[in-house]
Amino acid sequence: MMMKLQDELRLKSALFETRRHFLKQCTSGLGMMALGAMVGGCGSGKKIGQPVVMNPLDPKLTHFAAKAKSVIFLHMCGSPSQLELWDYKPELAKLDGQPCPPSFLEGKKFAFIRGVPDMLGSVGQFKQHGQSGAWISDYFTHLPQAADEIAFLKAMYTDQFNHAPAQLFMHTGSARLGRPSMGSWVTYGLGSENANLPGFVVLTSGGKAPDAGKSVWGSGFLPSVYQGVQCRSEGDPVLFLSDPNGLDRDLRKKAVEALSEVNRQQYEEFKDPETLARIAQYEMAFKMQMSVPEVMDISKEPTYIHQLYGTEPGQSSFANNCLLARKLVEKGVRFVQLYDWGWDTHGDGKGTSLEFGLRDKVNQIDQSITALLLDLKQRGMLDETLVVWGTEFGRTPMQENRNGKKMPFKGRDHHTDAFTCWMAGGGVKRGFSMGESDELGYFGIKDRTHIHDLQATILHQLGFNHEEFTYEFQGRNFRLTDVSGKVIHKVIA
Amino acid sequence: MYGKPVMPYQPQGVWQAVYSNAKWQLSQGEDAYRRAIYTYIRRSSPYPSMLTFDGSTRDMCLARRIRTNTPLQALVTLNDTAFIEMAQQFAQRMEHEGGKTKIEQIKKGYWWMTGHELPQEKQKIFLKLYQEALIRFRKDPKKQEEWMCNATPETAALAVVANMMLNVDEFITKE
Question: φ and ψ at A290, to 5 degrees?
């Protein structure tokens, strides 16, 4: 037994050795010239014959040509009601106030609804907009301008009816903790186009972090270099970005130069390429200290941009994050994720009601989302930027009756069987709607799309076959879409 | 040894606990400086520098720790308050126990750090950085005060060197 283990250990370490040697040979051989040009960014003036450092974020090739270069994922934490915003159900309005038919309740489990709840007609007034005739409710006043850019998925469904697991499911493909997030997969597969910025950036608004915590942008079992970097609007935009007090830039520069020199001597002695990587990372960190505050500063944007987005420099808001998302994508960031908290509209208070709270929340995003779409379009970036608006699940067509009691305001419970997400740009159809729920908006009845399907489609637009895009961990291959997921070809232009 | 978990310094606003009023309360006195094994762990909001260094998020069991090498790690070891305080303490120890001259002190510090002699070439680099920092701090006592209060310009300059020493590859990576 012991011998066997030792043999296995030897075999494993030999495997790692050869891989490392292979990489070394690759980088110092013929491919080096090409790579040297691609690496760029740091440490210019490399000598021929010196191994080029393989940076884990170097740009990489995909399975096939990509339609989208980057993704902006707008996640509304708490799940806004599809019935108030996107999914027009005149039949439901007729049943408003009547007890829910028993067939709806048989074998069903809800987060809060108990007994027999009443049906609840939509609080929103619906109208068709644009040439595509997209149904958007009166909650939105700006978004109709961009209606023809949007492709709706109106029969989304998920497996999870509580926020944290459902958010994990949306972003990591699993309701349990521990899997890499979509953005991590994407940066792992694509690398970064800008050596001076992180490849995957996360921005949050709404006063709280997502229910599932930082795991929704974690790298799981992928190396931590692929985890989402949360950029903050208060304090350092990236943790530990600013130099310590009293240490000014040129003294810091001298210090980093001294450090590089010491490390270079170290490399001369031991020839470990990791040492070169270390030197490169310190130089990159030094550059990031300049480039990150620059891109995160929106105060220098022209007035018309601020008017378009409704942004106010220095504030922490969803609008500011939308503008930042555009700036980051422009600079080559692959995956930008926005989380906005506060959409959980149960109706247990004014702030969480469909009549008031939801309207306030929509007012916080309406103008800036519209601005983001129009601004990207105007800059010619929408074609290669996939914007996804989504959430973790939907809401019930029934009025919530927490613990069997009547709620003070209009509200709906968590619902997994039908909800709406949408995409725009990045090679998806413009002015398109796909999927239908039944007359009461309870179940998807046509072209249902699962969370894994959406994930497969996002990867597809970035040039990946989601079934082949795997990482070996704990003895098997893992992928974002687990063991399911189909690319939603209907929605692709 | 032993004792309750502690909450060492972490930047404002990083700690986020949904569905709970738990707060990150900076531990006082020695507790703020305990080994990382005592650091309070919350899976949904892990300690930031551990996350940056491939620390386990405790979501899954790990058969082996992945080794990465990222610019964000460089920012932690260069700028995190914990590392700055370490550098300042290290500088003071070098001064008190390292010998009479600066070069003796730096050599001793390097010995403590790595267990071997500081080569001639590297001595020059560290000494040059020390002198540059010293000139600056002598010229601008206010800057020096911000960087390290209640210290002589010599100690403050040595702390700049110590900060760099704690970042050399030889110290961070085990060959």
Answer: -90, -45
Search chain A and give the residue with CA nearest B54: A224
CA–CA distance, A294 with A279 (Å, rounded to integer): 23
Shortest Cα distance, chain A CAs vs residue B7, angstroms: 18
Quick count: other Cβ atoms within 10 Å of Cβ A388? 23
Distances (CA, A) of A198 to A52, A143, A192, A201, A335: 21, 30, 7, 7, 9
**Would you say residue A466 has pLDDT above 90?**
yes
Provide the 10 A C-beta neighbour count for residue A264.
14
Query: What is d(CA A448, CA A158) in angstroms, rounded to the nearest whole number?
Result: 10
- Contact call for residues A193 and A41 (beta carbons, < 8 A): no
C-alpha span between A426 and A359 (Å, rounded): 29
State the smallest CA–CA distance between residue B66 and chain A in angstroms: 6
Q: How many angstroms separate the CA atoms of A173 and A163, rounded? A: 14
A217 DSSP 8-state letter = G
Can you tell me whether residue A362 is helix, strand or coil? helix
Alpha-carbon gap, residue A26 to A314, rounded angstroms: 47
What is the tens place of the pLDDT at every residue in A413-453? 999 999 999 999 999 999 999 999 999 999 999 999 999 99
Name the residue among A91, A75, A72 with its Cα closest to residue A83.
A91
Residues 6+ apart with CB under 8 A from A67: A384, A386, A426, A427, A461, A462, A463, A492, A493
Residue A348 one-letter amino acid: D
More confident residue, A195 or A401: A401
Token pair recorded at residue B149:
């209060």
DSSP letter for A338, please.
E
Q: At what angle do helices B81-97 and B102-114 cross, to 10 degrees?
A: 120
Which residues of chain B neighbour A55 with C-beta distances below 8 Å?
A: none
Taking the Cβ of residue A270 and every Cβ of chain B, the question of whether any pair is shorter than 8 Å is answered with yes
What ipTM did this prediction achieve? 0.91
DSSP calls for A77-107: ET---HHHHT---HHHHHTTTSBPPHHHHTT
Q: What is the pLDDT of residues A126-180, one digit of tens each?
A: 999 999 999 999 999 999 999 999 999 999 999 999 999 999 999 999 999 889 9
Separation between Cα atoms, residue B120 and residue B129, nearest integer Å: 15
